[in-house]
Amino acid sequence: MSFTSVRLYHFRNLDDTTIETNARDVFLVGENGQGKTNFLEAVYFTCYGSSFRTRRDDTLIRHGEDDLAVEAVFDRADETHRIVIKQAGRKKTIELNGKPVSDRKEIVSNVPCIVFCHDDIGFVTGAPEMQRWFMNQTLSLVDRDYLDSLRLYNRVLRSRNAVLKSGQFTVLDALDQQLVETGIPIVHRRRDMSSRFSEVLGELFGTVFGSSEKFQLIYRASWRSDAPHDEIRNRRENDLRMATTTSGPHRDRFVYQFGDSLLTNTASTGQLRLVSLILRVAQAQFVRQATGPLPVLLLDDVLLELDPGRRARFMEALPDYEQAFFTFLPDEQYAGFRADSTLTYRVDGGRLSAQS
Amino acid sequence: MSATSDILTHLIKQLSRLPGIGAKSAARIAYYLLQADRAYTESLSDDIREIQHRIRRCSVCGSFTEADPCDVCSNPQRDRSRICVVEQPQDVPVLEASGAFAGLYHVLGGVISPIDGIGPEDLSVAKLIDRATDVSEVILATNPTVEGETTALYVAKLLEERGIPVSRLALGLPVGGDLEYADRLTIERSLRGRTRLTTEF
Ligand SMILES: Nc1ncnc2c1ncn2[C@@H]1O[C@H](COP(=O)(O)OP(=O)(O)O)[C@@H](O)[C@H]1O
Ligand SMILES: [Mg+2]
Ligand SMILES: [Zn+2]
């Protein structure tokens, strides 16, 4: 699937206009702060109904305005589709081919879109929450029901935490049972995915780093068994004291191991950054294997940080894609990556102008 | 603004408080009423006025009724060894319409929802335990939502501790669905396929 055009209205600093994107590769070239990432964000917004830079989608609305709209036309399996997302304050409405979509989930699995950006390094070095976020995203891209499971679990979790805070202790038995019933399917899916994901990751790592040391993703579930009733029971006093649920999938961890040691203990920042790129490549390959349609890639300033050798290997490792959007600074050597069909836009103060 | 449009605006505002009615539908309904047959609008307003006077909660099971106890509770033909537990009074006629259940009902009057500060003591749980002491089966027909499930598990445990057999009616009902929206066939199937519930904690 690929985007043929994107219409913008009140989206951050971008001009209100329609941008043609009918090419396999689209380059956005401009100085810092001009709107390159904003454009990638707009594309991402039509794929996920949310941003990769902020959790507050109302901040995407241009300063001083009340609402925004992004409309994208894309082809998939020889059919043309049109998606419109509007954000008015905190309220979001989504329309696919003229029909309202009530749940973001329905469009997430629609368009496999993968973004590569600076903050991705958090998936390697950041808080466990960020690492879970990455795995959750990967899983929800390949498993339609995963988001439902997660929502269900989170709902039980919120209830249980409310009980722990308020002292409605009589209900705890029931909620403990629900915590297990809704949590264990998540553990199973994560375990299954981690082992498959780890394989893809290990291979890529070898290619890009040219290293023979084993690189692995290790899933460390918070619950030690698949029937954690006793564990939860034993932790109850502790949970009550902390007034929150201290075990379960919301406390799961994902760690990366290089040879025999944890990656974060041994790698340099440059290496960690490259690993975070590889994570995204692995995600794209993984999604590709699982779901079929080729992904759309959004690559935000990522080539900038790699030396020429790694840059070339990274480009080789990129999964086959339907369409890719790249951002570059004007003085970068991007010409070498251009194909005849590449569309290049100069980005200046929120205005995109086509370059030949 | 003239007096007529004031009352019209007021009516539209009142109507838009109804569940599922937005401002647009409210306006459409108001204009419809304005031009509708007099006899109809008068009997409609009579019904609205009377409904709360005439209908109350059954003092035994908690369902809506004009006579107390309700028709189900006072019917000697009903199977008194079974009680079906539901969330809301409006769930009773839905189950009744399926014709698949011949026992008695018990309305909890809501679900346990810690986030909203609703606990077991806000529901008609103690009364259920009282009523259930001698029955041979209690069927829990709360909705298959997280809160409905919490409530079912909580009640089940209390009943089990007293040696009362409990089963759960949820099978076949759409996940997250409301009993209110389930059709007759689904309910019949659910009732037949109900499962014995055991709590693990
Ligand atoms: N809600 C908004 N309304 C208007 N301008 C915004 C908004 N959010 C960000 N901007 C502007 O967008 C610019 C940053 O764009 P960005 O796409 O991140 O730049 P880059 O080209 O470096 O990727 C800044 O000038 C910023 O002021
Ligand atoms: Mg940028
Ligand atoms: Zn009754």
Q: TL;DR?
A:
The complex is a heterodimer of chains A (356) and B (201). With 356 residues, chain A is α/β, with parallel strands linked by helices. Chain A has two domains: 176 residues, P-loop containing nucleotide triphosphate hydrolases (Rossmann fold); 171 residues, Up-down Bundle (Glutathione S-transferase Yfyf (Class Pi), Chain A, domain 2).
> What is the terminal separation of chain B in angstroms?
65 Å
Q: Care to count the β-strands of chain A?
A: 15
Supply the CATH architecture of the largest domain in chain B. Answer: 3-Layer(aba) Sandwich
Strand content of chain B: 5-15%
What is the helical fraction of chain B, as a range of percent? 40-55%
Number of domains of chain B: 2
Shape of chain B: elongated
Largest sheet of chain A: 6 strands, antiparallel
CATH topology of the largest domain in chain A: Rossmann fold
Oligomer: heterodimer
**Beta-strand residue fraction of chain A:** 15-25%
CATH class of the largest domain in chain B: Alpha Beta
Provide a count of the helices of chain B.
Answer: 7
What is the domain tally of chain A? Answer: 2
Q: Helix proportion of residues of chain A, in percent?
A: 40-55%
Tell me the radius of gyration of chain B.
20 Å
Instruction: Report the C-alpha radius of gyration of chain A, rounded.
Output: 22 Å
